[in-house]
Amino acid sequence: MDKKIILTGDRPTGRLHIGHYIGSLRNRVELQNSNKFNEIFVMIADAQALTDNAKNPKKVQENVLEVALDYLAVGLNPEKTTIFIQSQVPQLAELSQYYANLVSISRLERNPTVKTEIKQKNFGESVPSGFVFYPISQAADITAFKATTIPVGEDQAPMIELTREIARSFNQTYGSNVLVEPEMFLAEEGISRRLPGIDGINSKMSKSLNNGIYLADSYEEMKAKVMKMYTDPDHIRVEDPGKIEGNVVFAYLDVFAKDKQKVEEMKAHYQKGGLGDVAVKMYLVEVLDEILKPIREKREELAKNPEEVYKMLAIGSEKARAKAQETLEEVKDAMQINYFKDL
Ligand code: TRP
């Protein structure tokens, strides 16, 4: 039977928050522990992060460690999952260069996720070419490991589609079957999308808005953020009837509370009047802390020894290099540019 291989990753532009946890991290840990996969690679995509942070390498560099701590704290296990840093696998850059010859500029410019990002990032007239190019580099990330299964959010669909096109085109052009066409794996569709920032139901958690709850937040920080959450601005006195729609606290309870019945009862009470915001918020603090406490404690422990974390990343990157090198050799063979192979 063919091998089942996972590859996924994150850009290290900030610490990971509970939206990441519920939308992807929790699922990765489940996949890891299912033992259904032959190999699992999780990549810290620093090179991709640099495509729009070229002038701020320190931010990227610092967040490599933060993201690695988040990974370990939620339960990714380096014995089972190879965690590595993208820039430490130069084979990926080399593959990208060859793949770029198979992709037209207009194809890159049509990528809807990249288009949205370009608008959000206010590049103006100066969109870095590396940024428009990053989906090609992402195809290299995926194909270098012959990954079959890519657990990502919906916004990554265009990248997976392009990767499939590149793999197909490469195999056809060079008469090979070196590259594997991956499948996207949508874990819990929409959940992270449904999880808004603390400031309102229409916002998404984002580092720049400081409206997210981070895995690294202390209990006090988390509690303060819950207490600041947007509720129903017309719910002024406890006796007043309150609205659930647009109420961030209930949106979070819907996602995180295990006791769904209790949440439904609270909603009814809130709508009728007589249930205060603070009471609902205190319940959310309790619910969140049940999830976050073990993660926070493990993270604090690991953060005392950053050197150990870097060692783990070095070992993972070494493994990743070996695997990517194998694929690169096959790619160069297929392209007939492996000149010294038989010397
Ligand atoms: N683009 C992904 C993100 O923004 C990160 C990423 C880079 C990735 N390379 C990847 C995800 C390969 C999956 C597979 O989060």
UniProtKB/TrEMBL annotation:
<dbReference type="InterPro" id="IPR001412">
    <property type="entry name" value="aa-tRNA-synth_I_CS"/>
</dbReference>
<dbReference type="InterPro" id="IPR002305">
    <property type="entry name" value="aa-tRNA-synth_Ic"/>
</dbReference>
<protein>
    <recommendedName>
        <fullName>Tryptophan--tRNA ligase</fullName>
        <ecNumber>6.1.1.2</ecNumber>
    </recommendedName>
</protein>
<dbReference type="InterPro" id="IPR014729">
    <property type="entry name" value="Rossmann-like_a/b/a_fold"/>
</dbReference>
<comment type="similarity">
    <text>Belongs to the class-I aminoacyl-tRNA synthetase family.</text>
</comment>
<keyword id="KW-0436">Ligase</keyword>
<keyword id="KW-0030">Aminoacyl-tRNA synthetase</keyword>
<dbReference type="GO" id="GO:0004830">
    <property type="term" value="F:tryptophan-tRNA ligase activity"/>
</dbReference>
<keyword id="KW-0067">ATP-binding</keyword>
<dbReference type="Pfam" id="PF00579">
    <property type="entry name" value="tRNA-synt_1b"/>
</dbReference>
<keyword id="KW-0547">Nucleotide-binding</keyword>
<dbReference type="InterPro" id="IPR050203">
    <property type="entry name" value="Trp-tRNA_synthetase"/>
</dbReference>
<keyword id="KW-0648">Protein biosynthesis</keyword>
<dbReference type="InterPro" id="IPR002306">
    <property type="entry name" value="Trp-tRNA-ligase"/>
</dbReference>
